[in-house]
Amino acid sequence: MTPMKELRVQLEVLRYNPDTDTEAHFQRYELTCPEEWVVLDALNTVKAEIDPTLNYRWSCHMAVCGSCGMMINGTPKLSCHTFLRDYEGTVIRVEPLAHFPIERDLVTAPDDFMEKLKRVKPYIIPKEKKPISEGEYKQTPAQLMKFRQYSMCINCMLCYAACPEYGLTPSFIGPAALTLAHRYNLDSRDGGRKERQEVVATHEGVWECTFVGACSEACPAHVDPASALQQMKITSSIDWIVEHLIPGGNK
Amino acid sequence: MDTISTDVAIIGAGGAGLRAAIALAETDPTLRIALISKVYPMRSHTCAAEGGAAGVIKPDDSFDMHFDDTVGGGDWLSDQDCVEYFIHEAPKELLQLEHWGCPWNREADGSVAVRPFGGMKKQRTWFAADKSGFHILHTLFQTSLQFPSITRYDEYYALDLLVDDGRCQGVTAMEMRSGQLRQFHAKAVIIAGGGAGRMFPFSTNGAIKTGDGMAMAYRAGAPLKDMEFVQYHPTGLPNTGSLLTEACRGEGGILVNKNGRRYLQDYGMGPETPVGKPQLKTMELGPRDRVSQAYWHELQKGNTVSTKWGDCVLLDMRHLGEKKINERLPLVRELCASYLQVDIVKDPVPIRPVVHYMMGGISTNTKAATPLPGLFAAGECACVSLNGANRLGSNSLVELLVFGRRAALSAIEHIQGLPASNAAALNTRAEETQSRINELFSRIDGTESMSALRKEMMDTMEKNVGIYRTEEGLQEGVSKIHELRQRYRNIILTDKTSVFNTDLFQALELGSMLDCAEAVTVGALARKESRGAHQRLDYVERDDKKFLCHTMVYHQGLDVPRVDYLDVVITKSPPGVRDYSGDHK
Prior knowledge:
The structure holds 2 protein chains of 2 kinds. By secondary structure, chain A is of the alpha+beta class. Chain A starts with 5 loop residues before the first strand and ends in a 7-residue tail after the last helix. In chain A, strand 6 and strand 7 form a beta hairpin. Chain A is built from 9 helices and 7 strands; from the N terminus they run E-E-H-E-E-E-E-E-H-H-H-H-H-H-H-H. By secondary structure, chain B is of the alpha/beta class. In chain B, the strands form 6 sheets. A 5-stranded parallel β-sheet of chain B has the order 7-3-2-11-19, sandwiched between helices. Chain B has a 5-stranded mixed β-sheet with strand order 20-18-12-23-24.
């Protein structure tokens, strides 16, 4: 059995408690960790052994629950999937997700995102209703592949923290919610695109996106929201052409 | 304290809680539904389930076969009326999810695809790649957004049930953002709070799986049933404990020891089947209890591989090829690559058994009702006695759908013609919760550290209540957990502020886990036989004369809990031999 290599880890963590602090400050923690650990493991050690007052969210430790998004050296990351070995010899700065209000320490308030998610109607609005007794809607593997990638979003909100547009214009519905609308629009079982367009094809919707692509870079689930938004712009443009330039196109 | 009046309060917004909420909203749109969870719904641990969900759908399958697999898999501790109800509801629920948009994998003709799973005689596991639980959870959550009668209370930590006049009429919960306690007055309460795997140090379970729902019901007088049956999943990552789905083996992955031998053939699960051609219900597709137990024997024989993460066996998937791995097991490949730095396309991956699932939980009947009127439960926190002594993989994702819905329908039946509640009495109950919290905050003479106590609990559970158990070890486990419960009264909070105080929530979670741990250890000590996931080195046989019954554990304050028994419901399948030899017809 080869022993595990250990790393000396220095964390610089943003602290803020609205009960006691007038402003946020950084606190330094130093500890030794196995080199295969992630930033979350280091935070958990701080919490259990050094400072029980440090607060952050986490649960699954396998990059699927979306709880532990944070800014790590200025980049939005899941702390359970950010490896200490990639930061060897440096101070790791850990801050709450950008563009969201801080509740406390690394905990941000996701209310705005939750509201936007709801607005895009992210559920099947059936093209044709049928009872369960008639079995499944047939969907070929090719039809599934059209939207599957866009159904992989874990709602971690890293894309909102990465998106410069969302930072500037908080009314922007944003990458994850718009991508989810696109996911349902592309589903062969769905007939709700027109309803969603009222929210999606607006200046709070896809037209706010300037295609920086930061969302897709930040996405830990490889959803590629930027591509979804570009596809939506194209289909929305076609809608406009059909409606305005083709005689009878609005029928 | 603010009071929120509602018709039905649901505690937990994972698969079971969301399914219950949708069923309530669809059945009676006038009902007010409060969906309370200590996390945002999509963080619930349902998201981590990988392999799939079982339901009879293909022409070569039958309800009888799903029944037999489940009852035999559970070593005849399942209530057979419950299994019967479940297997018939299962395909309907899976189809319902399909109608709601769940991205199930498909056959070329567009019908739903199924995959093989451990202990199942036919292919009946519906799947969405290896993120089935994730897709189920998100489909339910997104579907729930269209119902205005569902009011969510995200990040509210539920504390105590409000019981008056012999029935459950609400719950207290703390808004985590403010630290304010609220009371929910409800005509019925559904607990869907998940399992308690975090009692153990090495677990597939997320941090939130601390048995709060189980403990809350238990403290309010509802018994916990069959808690000694703790499932070890055979294939966990040896460092993080992350789950590598059974679908690894369903798709054809094999388990080998340090000599390259497919050792399962030495433990009643042979003869060996050809590599890459998995045969149902034998070898790598044996049930989880047997496969995990085989690991323990290999460890005793010195046949395990020594790694920097400790003793392991190897899961070899190389012969599946990159294309199939990427299509069917993309998450598994990613997990192994990032956390172990092993590419499963090129190398076998070291694994070891890991605590995964509680077969036991709040005692419920087939209607998802607990013995406490007005209280219902579903999902992992409940023990409806579907899974008996060992759950088959892919039955639990369906269980939370079938019984989540059933709990909703039962709650609606319960609230018809209910007498008015006594708000003053409920207030008094709620004040008791407030006093408990105040006492914790104002305590200045506490000497126990929360994280140290938690570690002692985890170490005790691992050492004494693992895959194989003994009288001596269990005695030690019982007395140690009992001691820890006494010492818990002396823990001291470091953080006494109000906003998102996770020092407080972790302390409360530890209290829940200790209650659950005591029920596990006491139940295990009393069950002097070996059945399914409960294996005793000193009582190696199943004993149907004495123990064809459910363990019922009743909370007795700080005293050792009371243990009682309840007969198993047998309708058509008398206890028999579990045969995973591959010869079965």
